[in-house]
Amino acid sequence: MDSKDDIEKIKKENEKLKFINENKSDLVSVSAHQLRTSLSALKWTLKMFDDGELGNINDEQKKYIGKAIESNEHAIDLVNYLLTFNNLEDTSMAFDFKKVSILDILGKVIDEFYGELRNKNIKLTFIKPATDIPDVKCDKEMITVAIQSLIENAIKYSQNNEEINIDLKYDPKNNEILISIHDQGIGIKKEDQLKIFNKFYRAPNAIKKETTGSGLGLFTTKSIVERHNGKIWFESSRESGTSFFILLPIS
Amino acid sequence: MKRVLIIEDDDFLQGLEAKKILNSGYDVLSAQTGEDAMKKILEPNVDVILLDLLLPNFDGFEILKKIKENDKTKNIPVIIFSNLSENKDIEKAISLGATKFMVKSNFSLEELMEQIKKLI
């Protein structure tokens, strides 16, 4: 076989792989949306039982309904990550980089957590920058997922009545922004700090505090930040809680 | 009494949404197919429309477009209540005039009601 034949063969193989990959992505996407329909039905029905809207339930039933709600939320989280993953790993699907306001994204994401903050009586303070911040060239959907994941963790691993502070800063010299999310929660132990960004890893103290969790949140967040040529890191101690930082270039 | 039009093809979800809205003191009108939705949007006294995007043989975006093109219906707030969540879908819906885009599995019915109350 001469080199021309080789090239043709590789081209055909590539086409075939691309076709299989696209089909896989479509299958994941369609299945995830179907799953969401069933999970929504379960979520709403269980909540109605829990709130007593479908009749009185006894303490034992309430305990089991609570566990079912927790388990269902875990499945919803997994489906959300599955969809994000599908987009992240689909190399044919380029990120949609557009100039967007990080201030707007942060505001919207914080709003979404209003109910959970209220339930745990957590005071969230968002310190907006004193000066204007230029729009950042990023994939809005992906950066939203990354920020959601960090705020969700901050709430999850905080105790009732604690505080969360979110800070946004602009560094005109290096043309980059820094988002920091500080909580007073359980902290990340020294021995877990190197593994925290690994796929499926959950620290033992995190599992103890919140039994359900996918172990995909921080892994996904790091992948997203790095696809934006950004950096993510944290500082944590048992006494003062955890601070996560995301550094993103403006363009 | 204020009235919410639910356009949702899934029987069970439609039933749960309707129950919650009725229990909150509003009236409900429902459509489960695109064809039916096209008729129901023209009924008088619809104050908010809850619109699913994936309907059998019908594209929810088409319904949204029709709502916003018609002088009689263009001012009715439309909440997209779907399990699609990609940016392109959200942007398309907002650019066609949707007031809010909510992913069903990520919201409770109480949170949905909070949004409806804000718009009525």
List keywords for this structure.
heterodimer; A: 251 residues; alpha+beta; Heat Shock Protein 90; two-stranded antiparallel ribbon; B: 120 residues; alpha/beta; Rossmann fold
Explain what this protein looks like in three dimensions.
The complex is a heterodimer of chains A (251) and B (120). With 251 residues, chain A is α+β, with helices and mostly antiparallel strands. Chain A folds into two domains: 3-89; 97-249, Histidine kinase-like ATPase, C-terminal domain (Heat Shock Protein 90). Chain A has seven helices and seven strands; from the N terminus they run ααβααββαββααββ. Chain A has helices at residues 3-50, 59-89, 102-112, 114-120, 140-156, 204-209, 217-227, and strands at residues 97-100, 123-127, 136-139, 163-171, 176-183, 231-237, 241-249. In chain A, the strands form two sheets. Chain A has a five-stranded mixed β-sheet, with helices on one face. In chain A, strands 1-3 form a two-stranded antiparallel sheet. Chain A starts with a helix and ends with a strand. The mean pLDDT of chain A is 89. Chain B is an alpha/beta fold. Chain B has one domain (3-119): Response regulator (Rossmann fold). In chain B, the strands form two sheets. Chain B has a five-stranded parallel β-sheet with strand order 2-1-3-6-7, with helices on both faces. A two-stranded antiparallel sheet of chain B has the order 4-5. In chain B, a hairpin with a 2-residue loop joins strand 4 (54-55) and strand 5 (58-59). The radius of gyration of chain B is 13 Å and the shape is globular. The model of chain B has no long low-confidence stretch (mean pLDDT 94). The A-B interface holds A 33, 36-37, 39-41, 43-45, 47-48, 53, 76, 79-80, 83, 87, 96, 115, 139-141 and B 10, 12-13, 16, 19-20, 23, 54, 83-88, 90, 103-106, 108-111.
